Amino acid sequence: MTLEDLFPDGLSALQIGLAVLSVLVGWLLSRFARKGVLKLTTRTPGISDSVAQLAARFTQYALLLVGIGVGLAFLGANVQPLLAMTAIAVVVLILVLRGVADNFAAGVLIQSRQSVKIGEEIAIDGPDGEIRGKVQELNGRAVILTTVDGRTVHVPNAALLTGVLVNNSRHGARRSALEVRIARSDDLDLDEVIGIITDAAATVDGVHTRERPGVRISSVSPTRWMLELQVWHHPLHGATVVSDTVRAVAEALEAAGLRSVVAPEQSTPPLVPPEPY
């Protein structure tokens, strides 16, 4: 493509001057718009620096391209070759940046709505089951998690926005349940046993005092009681609190002369079956 193809009628000084002016105005407007977007995003809660920078650069380049396009129009450019080149460029850009644009838009929604915050523990559906981890970073492409076993997971923003998201930290507390199987005793009734269990759980470090431990009766048979102990704790301290509670309750029941099995609810079945009580 030559200049004669783009400008078949020649150029005048006025056309050149208007074209240069339009490009200059577009450049100035793009600079001011970039600063304005940065100021606006800093005042909007939940938008990270990476997302703000990406939005500012996009606005700047878009206005600059508009100024260049207006300048070419002043020059009387033949629009057909330009339209063809623009259409090809747009198609290629859409194919290449489709995923990036989706993740960027989803990232803006996530951070503006604050459905996820840094430091919170969340659970999402992964390719091999549930993924649970602590949010370390929010950016324009993904949410970065650190799992309980030390792995780093990059979750695309679009997948997080459209998938099932469980926020374990937003409430400020989390409830865990323990299964308690106790052989029936002639010396103690069920209410006394429940008192032993709740008192032992209340002494565990990390168990919340504003929501006292509660016990639900699952089943009663001639040989045993099956109970469910519920305790509230910090969302990120569940494993430690549950472990300490299992130990404290088991020791309290043993001190009372009761044979029992205490285990976290939905735990992995033991390799050796428990005694039948």
From TrEMBL:
Q: Identify its membrane topology class.
A: Multi-pass membrane protein
Query: What residues does the Mechanosensitive ion channel MscS domain cover?
Result: 100-170
- What name is this protein filed under? Mechanosensitive ion channel family protein
Q: Which UniProt keywords apply?
A: Cell membrane, Membrane, Transmembrane, Transmembrane helix
Residues crossing the lipid bilayer are 12-33, 54-76, 82-101
Concerning its family, UniProt says:
Belongs to the MscS (TC 1.A.23) family.
Q: In which compartments does the protein localize? A: Cell membrane
**Domain of life of the organism in this record?**
Bacteria
